[in-house]
Structures are given as structure tokens and as C-alpha cells.
């Protein structure tokens, strides 16, 4: 079974631009979560989508948004990029929810904002 | 925000030594996962524990969930260079999102 895939793997943008990242979950997984990983803050939860609906949201500004399609693929968008948005953006899919909360991560998209 | 503190933050040991990584919180979690992440890749799930006091073994790795489900430990016996990586604990709640620990970067020197 194929794992979680993310595209693109690397991205360079300038301040003020917007960016869209894509994630394809493991086949059969309906929940997709997004995380931001930085050296200073570690891994932080952005949001989770299940059946095309945002089910949970972390503590990030409204510039960060996402959506999920009927085939469970998900995209996240960051508008008006800031230098501090430079990070590894990870997508994770899951089959079973609480209490196990097991999530399977993709390789991430490395975003650099100049 | 549920905070998970891991210790130590960095660990450098010789091949064959034993080590323990700790993951502590003041919050109760419904589950606790341990992940290992290598440079340029996403975290890979190692184990999930859900019952207070639960102990799971995965070859040379032993995972324990605290009785109160607030803390966990990862013990590696006879570490090998292939164990090198960033170890992350993550706590699960009633919602399907994880709160990640601060991470322990392990280097095993041949």
C-alpha cells in the first residue's frame, strides 16, 4: 500500500506571496492532518480534515487554510507569506481516530520564504 | 495547550550502550505515540500505548506509559548507529490531533 505523498517536496517563495501544498493520504484513510515543524517550535498542529470538513484547528492565523476533496486528497494554502513561515510542512493521514490517534506522515514539503 | 517535555534534548552515545528518553506532561492523554524522524523525512510511527502502566517491546526498544497516562519512557538496549534520529513522543486526546513533544536528538557513534 502506498504511503502518504506530498508535493512539492521543496518550495522557495518570497514574502507576500501565497503557496499551495498538496497531500494524498494512504488509500482508505479519510482523515488528513497538517503540521508545521520548525527548529524553534517543533511540530505544531495546524488543522485536520475528515470527509471534506475541517474537524479540528490549531492555533495558527487565518492566513493558513486548507481543504479536502471527495477523494480525501487535501491541500493547504498559506497567503501573504512571512519569513517565519519557513518550515517543514507535514501531512499525516489516519484510519482510526481516538483513542489510538495513530497517524502516518508523508515526507513533508520544505518551504523557504525569502 | 498540552505540553510534552522530553529529556534529554540531545544524546550522543557509543554503539552498544543503553539509553532512556523521557516524555513528561501535566496533562492526561488517551494515547501516547513514539515516532522517529530522520533528516528530510516525516516522522515514522514506532509504537502506540493506550493503557496506563502499559509496556510494549519492539526488538531492542521498550516503551512504557505511566500509570496516570501523563508520561512515557523509551528505553533502547545496545544502541546501534541505525538508531540515530530524532525521537518524538506525541499525546493523543479525544480529538484526532496529536500534541508533540520537544524531541530528543540521538546520535549513536560506531
Descriptive account of the structure:
The complex is a heterodimer of chains A (114) and B (110). Chain A is 0% helix and 53% strand. In chain A, the strands form two sheets. In chain A, strands 2, 4, 5, 6, 9, 10 and 11 form a seven-stranded mixed β-sheet that branches. Chain A has a four-stranded antiparallel β-sheet with strand order 1-3-8-7, with no helix packed on it. Chain A contains no helices and eleven strands. Chain B has strands at 5-7, 10-14, 19-24, 31-37, 44-49, 55-58, 61-65, 71-76, 85-92, 98-100, 104-109. Chain B contains no helices and eleven strands. The model of chain B has no long low-confidence stretch (mean pLDDT 93). The A-B interface holds A 4, 31, 33, 35, 42-45, 48, 50, 55-56, 58-59, 90, 92, 94, 97-108, 110 and B 1, 30-31, 33, 35, 40-45, 48, 50, 88, 90, 92-103.
Write the layout of secondary structure elements.
The complex is a heterodimer of chains A (114) and B (110).
Chain A: E1 5-7, E2 10-13, E3 19-24, E4 31-38, E5 42-50, E6 53-57, E7 64-68, E8 74-78, E9 87-94, E10 104-105, E11 109-113
Parallel strand pairs in A: 2-11
Antiparallel strand pairs in A: 1-3, 3-8, 4-5, 4-9, 5-6, 7-8, 9-10, 9-11
Chain B: E1 5-7, E2 10-14, E3 19-24, E4 31-37, E5 44-49, E6 55-58, E7 61-65, E8 71-76, E9 85-92, E10 98-100, E11 104-109
Parallel strand pairs in B: 2-11
Antiparallel strand pairs in B: 1-3, 3-8, 4-5, 4-9, 6-7, 7-8, 9-10, 9-11
Amino acid at each position: 500500500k502506498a504511503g502518504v505523498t506530498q508535493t512539492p517536496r521543496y518550495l522557495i517563495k518570497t514574502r507576500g506571496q501565497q503557496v499551495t501544498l498538496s497531500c494524498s493520504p494512504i488509500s482508505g484513510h479519510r482523515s488528513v492532518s497538517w503540521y508545521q515543524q520548525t527548529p524553534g517550535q517543533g511540530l505544531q498542529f495546524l488543522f485536520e480534515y475528515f470527509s471534506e470538513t475541517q474537524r479540528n484547528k490549531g492555533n495558527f492565523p487565518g492566513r493558513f487554510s486548507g481543504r479536502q476533496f471527495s477523494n480525501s486528497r487535501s491541500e493547504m494554502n498559506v497567503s501573504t507569506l512571512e519569513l517565519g513561515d519557513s518550515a517543514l510542512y507535514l501531512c499525516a493521514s489516519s484510519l482510526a481516530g481516538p483513542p489510538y490517534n495513530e497517524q502516518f506522515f508523508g515526507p513533508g514539503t520544505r518551504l523557504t520564504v525569502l | 495547550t498540552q505540553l510534552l517535555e522530553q529529556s534529554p534534548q540531545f544524546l550522543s552515545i557509543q554503539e552498544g550502550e543503553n539509553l532512556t528518553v523521557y516524555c513528561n506532561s501535566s496533562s492526561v492523554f488517551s494515547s501516547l505515540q513514539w515516532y522517529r524522524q530522520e533528516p528530510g523525512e516525516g516522522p515514522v510511527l514506532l509504537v502506540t500505548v493506550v493503557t496506563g502502566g502499559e509496556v510494549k517491546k519492539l526488538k531492542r526498544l521498550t516503551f512504557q506509559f505511566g500509570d496516570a497516562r501523563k508520561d512515557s519512557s523509551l528505553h533502547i538496549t545496545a544502541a546501534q548507529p541505525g538508531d540515530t534520529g530524532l525521537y518524538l513522543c506525541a499525546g493523543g486526546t479525544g480529538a484526532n490531533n496529536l500534541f508533540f513533544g520537544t524531541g530528543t536528538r540521538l546520535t549513536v557513534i560506531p
